[in-house]
Amino acid sequence: MQTIIFDVDDTLYDQLQPFRRTVKQHIASSFSEEQILALYKRSREYSDEVFEKHMSGEITALELQTYRIRKACADFFITIDEQQAIAFQQFYVQEQRKIELFPAMKQLLHQLHASPVQLAVLTNGEYDHQMMKVTQLGLTRWIPADHIFVSEQIGYSKPDLEVFQFVEQQLDLERTSTLYIGDSFEHDVIGAKQAGWQVIWLNHRHREAASTQVTADYTLDQVDELFDMLNERMNL
Length: 236
What we know:
The structure is a single chain. The chain is of the alpha/beta class. 52% of the residues lie in helices and 11% in strands. It has a 6-stranded parallel β-sheet with strand order 3-2-1-4-5-6, with helices on both faces. The protein starts with a strand and ends with a helix.
């Protein structure tokens, strides 16, 4: 059976949207879209830098969250203190409770749910926080609750091979018939390819590939291209 597995953050929904509103509220209301995008990308890089420290218990979630925004701001000569960073994170979480699926993703999930395809989610992060997003996005309309996997619950995180093997075992996957869709080259492309899965790199933020040794099976620059590509490939 064909299986399609999705990442969550910045794959199923626009992660920049809650970030944008938070920046305008807590950093600078006059920031341009270009400045906000640059700050967002840098904050994600710093988040990835210390994510494993959080997973191993060396730092708390709040320490990760305040670190990434303070470091990102510093790169743009903006200084915020610890309390400002905490306030930023608190507002950001409130804004995440308003997230919505990309319209193209909603249409795609409708189509896939009606087809003989097994659907699942695999995402890095804290279980409760990621499940809040799952609930807000209404993903269980299309994806069974026991097909939703969060790294904290598993004990490993992408790109570790173990997290992909865990999902394989739980869903009894056929590797060659499994397609993973995600926005992170480091976590999604490298992790899924080493597991023997096919990968679509949803590179709508136009990031550079972190490795020349690993290649995604497909690279898309726009979320809307995903529906058309899968529709053509699977005749949905």
